[in-house]
From TrEMBL:
Gene3D superfamilies: Aldolase class I. Its cofactor is [4Fe-4S] cluster. Coiled coil: none annotated. GO terms for molecular function: 4 iron, 4 sulfur cluster binding; catalytic activity; metal ion binding. This is Radical SAM protein. Residues 1-188 form the Radical SAM core domain. It comes from the Bacteria. Keywords: 4Fe-4S, Iron, Iron-sulfur, Metal-binding, S-adenosyl-L-methionine.
Length: 200
């Protein structure tokens, strides 16, 4: 990097915690002081996962200060089994228990990623359930990051209407959980979240 420049985001394909040793090594490298590393604060690093519960617990024991982001996308096992197939191996309760362990060990707030899909996971009762389960498991150490679904060629799914999105946020907050909507960027050039797929 040149003076005045900074790394904004590194996005790769695949589940980070399925490549555990290399991901942890990369985190330690980029957070090491220069010249060995980039000198980036661990508190500015996010490690995402779909919910590999044992690996989340292992990461907690590394005594790092990175933010854990869990791609949840549903507050109930019935739907999450469909949206996130790894849920068939580690249930929602196991994932939340591991996230709670991480929050307790690190003192860091866990980010819950939730792509809002029209008529799939955007029902008011699911918002209530999400807020209740997260508040019970994590208390104040959680933040829900709602992601408006970006259009993808060939997908049958669509983004929830704005009024539905606003009501979902309101209901999650009503359960005592911080909830915001991600600012969508890059949609016009098909490079927003969930759009990094080749066409043709």
């Amino acid at each position: 990097m040149f003076p005045g420049q900074r790394v904004c985001k590194t996005v790769v394909s695949g589940e980070p915690l399925a490549n555990y040793k290399r991901v942890v090594a990369a985190v330690r490298r980029i957070t090491s002081p220069a010249p060995d590393g980039f000198g980036i604060s661990q508190r500015n690093v996010v490690v995402s996962t779909v919910g590999l519960a044992p690996a989340i617990r292992k990461l907690a024991d590394e005594d790092l200060s990175v933010t854990l982001a869990v791609s949840l996308h549903a507050p109930d096992d019935e739907l999450r089994d469909t949206l996130v197939p790894v849920n068939n191996r580690w249930s929602l309760s196991e994932v939340l228990d591991a996230a709670q362990y991480y929050a307790d060990k690190s003192g860091r707030r866990v980010s819950i990623e939730y792509a809002l899909i029209r008529d799939v996971n955007d029902q008011p009762w699911r918002a209530d359930m999400l807020g209740q389960k997260l508040h019970k498991a994590l208390g104040s150490l959680v933040h829900v990051n709602l992601i408006p679904l970006n259009p993808t060629p060939g997908s049958e799914w669509d983004a929830s209407p704005k009024p539905v999105e606003r009501e979902f946020v309101r209901r999650v907050i009503a359960q005592g959980v911080t909830c915001t909507v991600r600012d969508t960027r890059g949609r016009e050039i098909a490079s927003a979240c969930g759009q990094l797929a080749a066409e043709g």
